[in-house]
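Quick question: who can interpret this fold?

. . .
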Amino acid sequence: MDSPWLVVGLGNPGPGYAATRHNVGQMVLDELAERGRLTFKTHKTNATVAEGRLTPGGPRFILAKPNTFMNVSGGPVAQLLRFYSLEPSHLIVVHDELDIPYDTIKLKSGGGHGGHNGVRDVIAAIGTGDFTRVRVGVGRPPGSQGAADHVLKGFSTDERKTLPNLLADAADAVEQIASDGLTAAQLRFHTAR
């Protein structure tokens, strides 16, 4: 009855990428793990995983960061679903989103990849787009800067001031999706604050 939620934070491995916009999904997982005092450990599915409840009596979570590069995230996600015998309906993927302004999150279930190569690979690997996404806005690149350069750079000084709030909001959204459902979380986070 109490099926856990698999929450996957997309990003690139290694310290060189850790603080970039592309890794904001993994930063959200760090926030969630901290809330539940959970520790990430190496897992045989080519991911690092932290398991447990964030609040006593709350939903069970499997927080996972693929050890692969963003564009090949699908393999570890498919392996995790198989390992834990979970359906995609219990998968939440947290990722950066260029088409959403910085400091904004959007929640959705299903649909295409919207040009996001990590999401594209997850859909291809698990054979469906029917999973929940927490899309963390990193905004469009300024001027003529390319999208790839933008997402692989760190946050600006101004952005870093509000980054903790953005990560907390995204983590709150993950918790609310698991406890109250997607619609309730959308009502809360899609309403202008």
